[in-house]
Amino acid sequence: EIGPSQPDIGLVTQLLKQ
């Protein structure tokens, strides 16, 4: 199955640190 079931923690962290 192509595509992560959960978002990348790195991407989420960057969005939270904006």
Number of helices: 1
Uncertain ranges: none
**Helix-strand category:** mainly alpha
Order of helices and strands: H
Task: Report how far apart the termini are.
Answer: 31 Å
Coarse shape: rod-shaped
Q: Main beta sheet: strand number and arrangement? A: none
Q: Which strand-content bin applies to the residues? A: under 5%
Mean pLDDT: 81
Helix content: 40-55%
What Rg, in angstroms, do the CA atoms define?
A: 10 Å
**Topology, number of strands:** 0
Quaternary structure annotation: single chain
How would you portray this structure in words?
The structure is a single chain. The protein is mainly α and 18 residues long. The protein is 44% helix and 0% strand. It contains one helix and no strands. The protein has one helix at 9-16. The protein is rod-shaped, with a radius of gyration of 10 Å.
What labels describe this entry?
18 residues; mainly alpha
SSE topology sketch:
Blueprint: H1 9-16
Could you give a quick summary of the protein structure above?
The protein is mainly α and 18 residues long. Helices cover 44% and strands 0% of the residues.
